[in-house]
Amino acid sequence: MSDEALPGMPPLTFVETNGIRMACYDVAGEGMPVVFCHGFPELAYSWRHQLAAFAEAGHRALAPDQRGYGLTDRPEAVESYDMEQLCADLAGLLDAKGIERAIFCGHDWGGLVVWQMALRHPDRVAGVIGLNTPFIPRASADPIALMRMALGEDMYIVWFQKPGEADAALARDVDKTFRFFMRRPTMTPAEFAALPAEQRNFPLGLMLEAYDPAGDEHQLLSDGERRAFVDTFARTGFTGGINWYRNFTRNWKRSAGIADRVTCPALMITAECDHVLPPSMAEGMEKYVPDLDRHMIAGSGHWTQQEKPDEVSRVILDWVARRFAHEGA
Hints:
The protein has helices spanning 48-57, 83-97, 109-120, 143-151, 156-159, 165-171, 174-181, 189-193, 204-210, 223-236, 239-245, 248-254, 304-307, 309-323; strands at residues 12-17, 20-27, 30-37, 59-64, 102-107, 125-131, 266-271, 292-297. It has 329 residues and is α/β, with parallel strands linked by helices. Helix 1 links the parallel strand 3 and strand 4 (59-64). It starts with 11 loop residues before the first strand and ends in a 6-residue tail after the last helix.
């Protein structure tokens, strides 16, 4: 395995945490550290703009390739990717770096993890920033069963439960897969809401199969940026990341008894045109997250930190400066 940092990233370090070797990009600086946690199918590289902004501001920041991704280990067992392990990885990262507490900022699946960090390791979490991903209280029943019932077998999270199927489909043409994923919004929220129900269920396998990248004018990444993702996932495959989804039922079962209450300061950043995680999902969060600030980024789709990097960086740095002006690690 190559241990080379991706282009334009800060220094690359490796730590031993929770039984795995984790790759982490580390920005030296002052103040309360911020740990940036990526989603699917992404990498620490997704935070390249924010890491550069933090470096310019002289503020400490870390961004790991999380378990199953990039230069970090990829255990084989599906249950190795449950929420307990994902959170323990991050707590161990702080231990390895000599950091007592940090702010955790997560996007997409990383957002689910950072909210859970506040529940499972509250002594290590100074604050939480959810980018697109709101705090979601524990479901009343098995979430996969609920999704299957409401959205059908083709909905991507349900589809991901089938061993090997989505893994192979996404890996068949990795460049096409990332051209499909990493696009700017193709429609407004109103236009999306007007689609037939079966098109709003995110049947990812069918959508990817039908996608023709020729002439796509909504591409988000430069050729070099896309190549960083494509080369990495061509080497690692997608199974590590998909295994996070294969623990929804396990996570639900094992989270019984954990109170749905985040007591630390929190910031919820929503994206106006994210159809997967729309701003409406964050309504009513104050019931579970009483110390909550909000900001909505106009015109952004799902890949917010890459679509609107300057605004995301500014909002995060401003919030951290306001809420943690006199605090270090």
